[in-house]
Design a protein that fits this description.
The protein has about 280 residues and is an alpha+beta fold. It has 6 helices and 11 strands.
Length: about 280
């Protein structure tokens, strides 16, 4: 990445053009803004789950040094965060980085190579945090890593590990099918009589991933409860949008056909469904 004169292009980020109340009204993360103020950039991303590999992206490198933002995919989040930070520091300090020169000494088992991200990926959720921070899509470079034998994704012979990385230098329309293409596809909404923004009752421990959902109640008025089997009081309960709960725990979709006035609880023999009584009594 070759440095650009700081005055060559204006920056329209949330620090250069803050909203009237000091924070953007469009959901830009306050922590991201503070990290950019204090450290020059922030690293955002998503940890891997059952649907897709994880990724990490810089936010603020353009604001601080007028250099493209960086992204990397398919490795543990801490490893990716280290790579983004280290390469960003090198670029800020004057290292001339481009696709012709491998970047050594950042990750094992081999060097990283920079590839430009095609504009067709700009509006995807991969770069949502950066897009909110800058108020528009920005230029990105992808850090691409090799497999244990030094092979990169564009090489004919490669290991399955390199398939964890999207090939963002390709037009999205030309990219092979896979989780990266389907990332922003919304699955059919499974709850016929409930909205994604409908609040449902659950517990703080369920939301934190400490306990599992072991009981589901679908009340006569259409309200839902997704509970663990731990003793609880008012302080242990929480309310969350049904859509959020579904994204957090995709298996929740399995209960979408539970009729109103019924409950199901996980017992030794499996899930047992019974009628709900007028009083909310645990079975």
């Amino acid at each position: 990445m070759e440095p650009v004169e700081l005055g060559s292009f204006e920056c329209h980020c949330k620090l250069c053009e803050p909203s009237h109340d000091g924070w953007p009204p469009d959901g830009c993360d306050e922590l991201t803004v503070r990290n950019v103020e204090e450290h020059g950039w922030s690293v955002s991303g998503v940890r891997a789950d059952d649907r897709q590999p994880g990724w990490a992206c810089s936010v603020g490198v353009w604001h601080t040094a007028r250099l493209p933002e960086l992204c990397i995919f398919g490795l543990p989040f801490d490893v990716m965060s280290h790579a983004v930070n280290e390469v960003s520091r090198r670029a800020r300090d004057g290292a001339r980085l481009d696709s012709r020169v491998p970047i050594e000494g950042v990750l094992r088992p081999g060097p990283l190579i920079l590839r430009p991200v095609h504009p067709s990926w700009a509006d995807t959720s991969l770069f949502a945090v950066a897009n909110r921070f800058y108020g528009r899509p920005l230029e990105f470079r992808q850090l691409v890593w090799p497999d244990a034998r030094g092979r990169f994704p564009w090489e004919v012979a490669r290991s399955p590990g390199t398939e964890l990385q999207p090939m963002l230098w390709l037009d999205r329309a030309d990219h092979p099918d896979g989780p990266w293409i389907r990332l922003d596809e919304e699955p059919p909404w499974p709850f016929a009589d409930s909205r994604p923004d409908q609040g449902v009752i659950t517990t703080r421990q369920v939301l934190a991933g400490i306990t599992a959902i072991r009981g589901v109640m679908h009340w006569h008025d259409g309200t839902w409860e997704f509970l663990d089997d731990e003793p609880m009081g008012v302080n242990e309960l929480a309310v969350a949008p049904l859509g959020y709960l579904l994204r957090r725990f995709p298996a929740v979709a399995e209960f979408a056909d539970l009729p109103r006035g019924r409950q199901t609880w996980l017992e030794r023999a499996g899930w047992v469904t019974t009628a709900l009584r007028a009083r909310r009594e645990r079975p």
